[in-house]
TrEMBL record:
UniProt keyword annotations, A-Z: Signal
Source organism phylogeny: Bacteria, Bacillati, Actinomycetota, Actinomycetes, Streptosporangiales
Domain named Periplasmic binding protein: residues: 33-290
Protein name, entry field: Sugar ABC transporter substrate-binding protein
InterPro entries: SBP_2_dom
Family: Belongs to the bacterial solute-binding protein 2 family.
One protein family per Pfam: Peripla_BP_4
Compartments, record wording: Cell envelope
Primary subcellular site in the record, as a coarse category: other
Top-level taxonomic group: Bacteria
Organism field: Nonomuraea guangzhouensis
Amino acid sequence: MIARLSAGLLAAALLVTGCGGGEQKASTSSAKVGLITKTETNPFFVKMKEGAQKAAKAEGMELMTAAGKFDGDNASQLTAIENMVAAGVKGILITPNDTKAIVPAIKKARDAGVVVIALDTPTDPQDATDALFATDNLKAGELIGQYAKGAMAGKTAKIATLDLAPGITVGQLRHDGFLKGFGIAEGDPSVVCSQDTRGDQAKGQEAMENCLQKAPDINLVYTINEPAALGAYTALKAKGREKDVLIVSVDGGCTGVKAVKSGEIAATSQQYPLKMAEDGVKAVAAVAKGGAKPKGYTDTGVTLITDKAVQGVEAKDTAFGLANCWG
């Protein structure tokens, strides 16, 4: 009886492993992939999570997710990496809160055989991860700088830069790109005020208020993202300056694109977080199937969005922006 049962089980096993005939294909059905975002609440990262979920389902992978408790929370991200490595993930996708402080934890994960891909924000150094899937943030800044230069139409610029925070690569790249696109260097006297906002609307408003006290004749505002831009707009409106100050920004979230359509923001550079996460999950799935590890930088695209295009700067209108926005 036992012998007959064993033979039956063996036959069943052979039937399962041999079904389909010919060469077997590698499967990702038991593979896990992790996504660690800066926060859970920012619409950008909500859309990123949506992209990861969509791709993981399509690839038959299990998705683990975690996030910082606030923008800049390195400790929570470090713990998430450790937990995911312990859970046996094949790869981790991360938008680092602290681009330098997270590097040792990433190294431990990679040493354990886990593929680590940065999304949106490169680590410092960039090659601390296997690969980067992100907007070209320098180009994003450059596009709005070029736009602002054209839109100012030769007027003398009095510029306020509402930046992110020291030491965060994405903020520095956008800032540098704006200056490059506008055709000026760091320290140029046309930049009359610079304030950090951490990309927060309330802090953006406060920063703009401070800048207006320092330089009431500001006529151009660069902002790290659209929440900071809307904060700046609120401060300008309170002073009756909202119609004579040009605001440019980066992100391309739905709220931001609507603000471009209404005229609160003149233009924004739109990026695509869903694509970043989708491409990242697919890259990990390829490794799980026996493919090569991803490496280097993959540009996930950026588009200037405005309804008031200027000559020589390629752009799409807000109809396109709303069809491709997030949040």
